[in-house]
Design brief:
The protein has 321 residues and is of the alpha/beta class.
Length: 321
């Protein structure tokens, strides 16, 4: 089903609150996901991600605030909003004694969809399930069940696809295959909302990212802007001659020496001038270098910084766009 409110964002929550007795899972969360966007929603366990998704998909009622799909209230207009959304859940839930094709036929019936055999066959083929279409689901591997969840979420051609930990527990090959298909679906105009603990997936695929922490939005910005929050480089010095201790001039960078004495790992923060000062310290140390690895801080480091996962971290000021 396609949305009928052309100017409304695909997803919008405003001052969203959810209370469970004495626990406030969401504390006034506000953000919007544009039409056709691939948006990442990250956060540690207990941050409120699943609660927020459950509100959007009608599984949980909000305590206060707004939650809309294409301008339609998820409670008042629930029949329409639920037909606009497809969800790939985190847990592997299946009807064990149905075949793969039967499961998709029943899922089509839930949404009142008929005459979609060609689309069903396309999903089976594209997700490498065609050869298993007549197998009962209890006979499928975990990876096949994960692919089937994606097919079930897409069987009614939703305008919004919600991926809740879509690659949890799957091998690398399957992960790449699923993401190739998700990017294909996204390119066709489908809005995608992703939650994942594989932060590199969000960094590689999402245009914007929101980070939830303790029920609040700790950050919301374009991915490249979040990556610029930490002005630091992770440096590994590979030594041609092992040492027993870290040179005094490098100790202030929190340098750590490998057990074999052949590598020194440290983090260099600050502007280019300070980075130049660091290399002067390396030269003055007299270390004999075999190789040097330099990596800029990635989204994982930003995530830990914003959620307190790094000792001594302080949240940075983050633009909200």
């Amino acid at each position: 089903m396609r949305p009928s409110h052309p100017d409304a964002p695909a997803i919008e929550v405003r001052d969203l609150v959810k209370r469970y007795r004495d626990v406030e899972a969401l504390k006034g969360v506000s953000f919007a996901v544009g039409r056709g966007e691939l948006f990442g929603l990250l956060g540690p366990n207990g941050a409120g991600k699943t609660t927020l998704i459950s509100i959007l998909t009608g599984l949980v009622r909000r305590s206060a605030g707004r939650a809309e799909i294409f301008g339609l209230d998820v409670t008042r207009d629930y029949l329409t909003t639920r037909s606009l959304v497809g969800v790939v859940p985190q847990e592997l839930v299946s009807d064990h004694f149905f075949t793969v094709r039967q499961a998709l036929e029943f899922q089509s019936g839930y949404y009142g969809v008929r005459g979609n055999r060609d689309w069903m066959d396309h999903l089976l083929e594209r997700l490498d399930l065609a050869a298993h279409a007549d197998k009962r689901m209890h006979a499928l591997s975990g990876g096949m069940k994960r692919r089937l969840l994606v097919a079930k979420a897409l069987i009614h051609r939703p305008a919004v696809l919600v991926l809740d930990e879509p690659t949890a527990g799957v091998d690398v090959e399957l992960r790449h295959g699923l993401w190739e298909f998700v990017r294909e679906i996204h390119a066709s105009g489908t809005t995608v909302l992703l939650t994942t603990h594989y932060i590199e997936e969000a960094e590689r695929n999402c245009e914007r990212i929101g980070i939830l922490h303790e029920g609040r939005l700790a950050a919301l910005d374009r991915t490249e802007n979040l990556l610029s929050l930490l002005d630091e480089r992770q440096v590994t010095l590979h030594l041609s001659e092992p040492v027993r201790t870290v040179p005094a001039g490098l100790a202030r960078y929190g340098a750590a020496l490998s057990p074999d004495g052949q590598r020194i790992a440290l983090v260099v923060r600050g502007a280019d001038g300070e980075t130049g000062e660091f290399w002067a310290s390396v030269q003055a140390s007299g270390l004999k270098l075999r190789d040097v690895d330099i990596r800029r801080a990635g989204l994982e480091e930003v995530f830990l910084h914003l959620t307190g996962g790094r000792r001594g971290a302080r949240p940075a000021a983050v633009a909200r766009t």
